[in-house]
Design a protein that fits this description.
Elements lengths: L13 H8 L9 E5 L2 E4 H21 L8 H21 L1 H24 L8 E3 L5 E3 L8 H33 L3 H35 L4 H30 L1 H8 L6 H9 L5
Antiparallel strand pairs: 1-2, 3-4
C-alpha cells in the first residue's frame, strides 16, 4: 500500500470537515491509495468494509445456534425464511434451495452498502496518496463500476445455467436463430440492473449533501426516505436476479422435475411445452 493515506490526516478542523461534507458528490469514486499496483477507490474500500462486517455478523450470529432463536439469530433466520418463501413461489422448492443463498447474500450486501453511505461516517475525510482531501467511506452502489460488476456477474451466471439447462446445441440455437429480442435482453439486462441501482443511490447521496447544506434541521426526514429507498432498491435488484435465474433454468422444470402449476415457474414451464394450465 503506497503512501499510507491515513497518515496525519485524521485530525481535521470542524469547519473544514463540514465544508467537504456539504460538497455535492461526483459520479466518479474518489481515489484513495494503490494496492499491488491497482488503484483503490473509497467505494471499493467501503465494499471491503461491508463484506467484513457481514462476515463478522454471520460468524457471531451462528456461533452459538439455539433451538429457539432470539436476537440477531432470529433476525437472520427471518430474512432467510422470507427469501426461501419468495424463491419457492418463483421457481419451486428444489431450485429455491439452490439459488436462495446467492440471492439472499446479494440482497444483504446491497442493503448494507446502500445504508452504509447514509451513516455519518460517510463524512469522515482523509487525504489520499495524491494529496487530495476525499471522503474515506462512500456507498459502494454509488459507483457504477460496482453495480455494473454485480449485474454482469448475475447475467453471466444466468447465461451459464441456461447453457447447462438447454445443452450446448439448444443454447446456440437460441442465439443463432434470428431472434433480435434474445440478443437485446442479453445487453439490456445488465444495463438496467446496473444503472437503476447506481442512479437511485447516487441521487440519494446528492440529495442528502444538498439538504445538509440548505436545510440541515430537516435532514432526518430525507435520511429516513433514503433508508427506505435503499431497502427497495436492494429488493428490486435481488428479485430481478431471482427472476433471471428462474427463467434461465425453467427448462429443468419443464422436463418433469417440478411441473407445479401453483408456482410461477410451473406455469411458465407448462405454457412453454404447450400444456394447458
Amino acid at each position: 500500500m503506497q503512501h499510507l493515506f491515513l497518515s496525519g490526516v485524521l485530525a481535521q478542523s470542524g469547519a473544514e470537515a463540514t465544508s467537504h461534507a456539504t460538497e455535492t458528490p461526483a459520479p466518479p469514486a474518489e481515489y484513495l491509495f494503490t494496492l499491488f499496483g491497482l488503484p483503490v477507490t473509497n467505494t471499493i474500500f467501503s465494499a471491503w468494509v461491508v463484506i467484513i462486517l457481514m462476515v463478522v455478523f454471520a460468524y457471531f450470529t451462528t456461533r452459538h445456534m439455539k433451538q429457539l432463536p432470539s436476537g440477531a439469530q432470529n433476525a437472520l433466520e427471518l430474512i432467510i425464511e422470507l427469501w426461501i418463501g419468495v424463491a419457492e413461489q418463483a421457481m419451486g422448492p428444489r431450485r429455491a434451495r439452490r439459488f436462495m443463498p446467492l440471492v439472499a447474500t446479494l440482497f444483504l450486501f446491497i442493503l448494507v452498502s446502500n445504508w452504509f453511505g447514509i451513516l455519518p461516517i460517510s463524512y469522515f475525510m482523509v487525504t489520499n496518496a495524491e494529496g487530495e482531501t476525499v471522503p474515506l467511506f462512500r456507498s459502494p452502489n454509488s459507483d457504477l463500476n460496482v453495480t455494473a460488476a454485480m449485474a454482469i456477474a448475475i447475467i453471466a451466471l444466468a447465461e451459464f445455467f441456461e447453457l447447462r439447462s438447454l445443452g450446448l446445441f439448444g443454447y446456440l440455437k437460441g442465439l443463432l436463430v434470428p431472434n433480435p429480442m434474445r440478443w437485446l435482453e442479453i445487453f439490456t439486462r445488465p444495463l438496467s440492473l446496473a444503472f437503476r441501482l447506481f442512479g437511485n443511490i447516487f441521487a440519494g447521496e446528492v440529495l442528502l449533501a444538498t439538504m445538509l447544506a440548505v436545510a440541515p434541521y430537516v435532514l432526518f426526514v430525507f435520511i429516513g426516505l433514503e433508508l427506505f429507498v435503499g431497502l427497495i432498491q436492494a429488493l428490486i435488484f435481488s428479485m430481478l436476479s431471482l427472476v433471471f435465474l428462474s427463467i434461465a433454468t425453467v427448462h429443468e422444470e419443464g422436463h418433469g422435475t417440478y411441473d407445479d402449476a401453483s408456482t410461477l415457474e410451473g406455469e411458465i414451464a407448462q405454457t412453454t411445452h404447450g400444456q394447458p394450465i
